[in-house]
Queue: 2 jobs
Job 1
Amino acid sequence: MRRFGTLAAVALLASCSPKPKPPEPAPFNTAIPINEVMAHVMDPAADAFWGGMGTSYTVAGERDLSPTTEAEWKRVEDGAATVVLATNSLMVPGYQRAPIADWNRHAKGVADVALRAKAAVEKKDMVAMMEIGDELDRACEACHKQFSPAIAKPYVAPAGPTK
Ligand code: HEC
């Protein structure tokens, strides 16, 4: 009798519990087209990292670009961290391009390098930063070669109007 009561209670509970709803898709915002995501997020972030190393040569002379203040080091590290996070955006449905497995692999490739870039900046390891800087460039280009061959090639100015 007691056993029957328990079973009845379980059956009653089961019939009352609401059916699990499929999870709502996250409201990802993909209003900014991918070329602008590159121009306004990915490229400036990578530039902030790349800008923290090397030498600039201008008419005013040579200048070592290594960060000298904590604020400058932070800007360089911010760049590397932003690249890592920006790769997540590339893998949002709406930005992904087919074949998606290749697209995601390239995005992950950039994230892995940018994470190492961030760690090198944290250690203020200029030698590692220079090496990783080159690797980052190659990781970006790997995706461009497959998904946007036009920009992966050296830039050639379009022919002007003929007349
Ligand atoms: C998963 C693929 C992928 C990765 C990774 C990627 N890009 Fe891109 N990028 C693209 C695509 C696709 C375009 C061309 C967009 C289009 O079709 O208009 C592009 C375009 C660009 C452009 C040209 C934007 C314009 O004004 O038209 C720049 C600059 C750029 N990417 C920089 C970078 C940098 C820097 C990185 C690495 C830190 C990077 N991209 C990583 C896919 C990628």
Job 2
Amino acid sequence: MIEAIVVFIFGLLIGSFLNVCIARFPQNQSIIRPRSFCPHCKKTIHWYDNIPVLSYLFLKRRCRFCKKRISIIYPLVELITAFVFLFLYDQFGLNLVLFKYSVLFFLLIVVSSIDIKYHAIPAYLCILGIVTALFFSGVYTLEAFRKGSFGLNSLPLFHTLKGLIFGLGFSYLFKLFGDFFIGIYLTLCKKESIEGETESLGLGDVDFMGMIGAFLGVKAVILVFFLAPFVALVYTIFALIFKKSHLIPYLPYLSIATFIVFVWGNDIWNFIL
Ligand SMILES: [Zn+2]
């Protein structure tokens, strides 16, 4: 129990750091300096006003200085990060695998939040994920060599490359077809092309699927790809009931689908087959 609490608190602190990344990556600001500041009045936030989740509650969701609303995204990111980290720790214990999948899911949280806020993501984030996946499978491949297994199928690097190429290729083909049919539709209806509405998938989504393939393999790409629209549908129904805007970008759905596939992927795959 104490172990779980310590891991959870550590997860909250990582979430707090991810918030800094989410706020600063898109603006090309350093994530180390300056210290955290209010996005409205730019005043430096005291350490005691920067405690994950708790400060948000104590400050009654407002900045101490300018009284402007603090976005609910901040505590949500901290809580989601903590729960995901606790889940991964419970699955793998304290080792390299925990580190590998933590990088994946922390990237998913950052990428989804930036996509919600800015409707675009910096390309280097998914590339960072792909490099991380290649690094870990390189390490495992060396280990496999050391143990004397040289068969292509037993080499992690082979599976990572296969997943990466499949993830990029599959989603890029989908994008080409999708864009083609949207193009026909726009021509037939004589509609003006509005930016963002003429693309079936953005290039950010293609990079994202490459990252998923590199980390989780070919099967996961297929499952995530077909599961994400259902996640989006559930959210849309929810949004219609509560009359909230359902115009949110696609990466959060892909991320939620990835988590579902990570946990139940094999069950879903066997169920479908
Ligand atoms: Zn302020």
